[in-house]
Design goal:
single chain; alpha+beta
Length: 306
């Protein structure tokens, strides 16, 4: 789910070595992560050109490749968005076209991601880790309206800045039990007390398709947004490895390459997926101004042009 923020606040090819590690200098090193990881990559999104967004929406191949659907959602304050979703076992990705989101949110190159807890109460531990870094978290609760006009608490979220983002909208989140146990969501019961996991949230439909999970993402963001996002990632327990002009974020199954670029170069560069089975033959599928390369093996890489 896209967490749209009009904060001030809420008024309302392919990377052959994992994410081109050759870009990391020999002198760069990761900061020691906290003893325990509290947050994991949940989902990401990107705003692409209209031609590509329309091609994604109408792609017959994507409906075979992934648990794919197009959905319009009503969130907090009655704000709505329509996304093109590729759903996996624990992670997923949303695609938007230029103008699909109102105002600055709908501009070409805007991106975002959410990182989430697996156990109820752990978001408060992340808040404390942020305070320990000298960062005052900004709280927000997202809701969802199932069509009856009654908003259901969906998840609690935190931001690391009260200001509107320039290119990257990143947040930490924890699903609410009211939402997970609502019969309209068709989400299974908790497997253990306090389970608010990604695995519980997503259904098993991914097993019918090739795509299993999002394993990597490469995006260009402004230097300001990168700087503001790093405290959240560190508080969540990710390993952050600097390289000239950006960072690699690892730990937990999904790697993010966040590259600081000028405003006119922001945007989604690549999404990588793991597959449910080994695909012997390589398939290259053009989708608008993007290319999805599937296999050989259990890996697929989706690259984007501007």
């Amino acid at each position: 789910m896209l967490l749209r923020r009009v904060l001030r606040v809420i008024t309302a090819a392919a990377l052959a070595v994992p994410l081109a590690l050759a870009g990391v200098t020999g002198t760069a090193s990761a900061e020691p992560p906290p003893a325990r990881q509290l947050m994991y990559f949940n989902h990401g999104y990107g705003v692409v050109d209209r031609e590509t967004a329309d091609a994604i929406e109408h792609s017959a191949y994507l409906r075979e490749f992934a648990s794919f659907h197009v959905r319009t959602t009503t969130g907090a304050g009655g704000q709505t968005w329509t996304g093109r979703y590729l759903m996996g076992r624990e992670t997923y990705f949303e695609m938007f076209g230029v103008g699909d989101l109102p105002g600055e949110d709908g501009k070409l190159g805007m991106t975002g991601f959410g990182v989430s807890t697996e156990n109820a109460g752990e978001l408060e531990k992340v808040r404390q880790r942020l305070r320990d870094q000298g960062v005052k978290p900004v709280d927000f609760q997202q809701t969802r309206d199932f069509g009856d006009g009654v908003p259901v608490p969906w998840f609690d979220a935190i931001f690391t800045s009260p200001e509107q983002y320039e290119s990257l909208n990143a947040w930490g989140m924890e699903y609410r039990e009211e939402y997970l146990s609502d019969p309209r969501t068709k989400i299974r019961p908790a497997a253990y007390p306090g389970e608010v996991s990604r695995d519980r949230y997503l259904n098993e439909d991914y097993q019918k398709h090739l795509m299993r999970d999002v394993s990597a993402m490469h995006i260009g963001v402004t230097e300001r947004d990168l700087r503001v996002t790093l405290p959240l990632l560190k508080a969540g327990g990710f390993v952050v490895v600097p390289f000239p002009g950006g960072v690699l974020v690892t730990r937990g199954g999904t790697t993010m390459r966040l590259e600081a670029v000028p405003q006119d170069q922001i945007g989604l560069r690549m999404v990588e997926f793991t597959l449910n089975r080994d695909l012997g033959a390589r398939q290259v599928v053009p989708i608008g101004r993007s290319t999805l390369t599937v296999g050989p093996g259990t890996r697929a890489v989706w690259t984007f042009q501007r």
